[in-house]
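Hi support team,

I submitted a single chain yesterday and got back a structure, but I'm not sure I'm reading the token output correctly. Could someone confirm the output below corresponds to the sequence I sent? I've pasted both exactly as they appear in my results page.

Thanks,
R.
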Amino acid sequence: MTRGLGRAAIGYGVITAMCLAVTAWAVVAGLTRVEVLGHPVRARFTECHSEGGGRAGSHTVCSGPQVDAPTHTVKVSYQGHPDETVQVAREPWGGYEGVDTGFLSWAIAIMLPVVPLLAAAVVGGVTVVKVRRWRGLGDWI
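Hi R., thanks for writing in. Yes, this is the structure output for that exact sequence:
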């Protein structure tokens, strides 16, 4: 029985860490999208095409040079068309994200990290319970 409690505690701990990682990703991606993080640049799209398919469906990807540095090409998932100039921001993991500073984008940037954070709190609480039971401290609960 002790072995099963230990495995459960480790499993819940891993799930908690994954939820916290998703929360961190959602915060960084949201702040990049609303132009708080990242270095915003303007890009002029020269080509747009459809990519993907399968279960996730297809999406439009546009690419083109930066306006300030024409030798650097920007590729972003964006519903645009050629000869359009848009503002994009560089994400910490190397990609680019279209900048949108509207009210709905701010609301999504604030609310999206809440769900995995709540999940991390719940699973973290279960982890603490499992660790205490595993270590013989179950009487404290």
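A quick pointer for reading it: The CA atoms of residues 29 and 91 lie 7 Å apart. Let us know if anything else looks off.

Best,
Support desk
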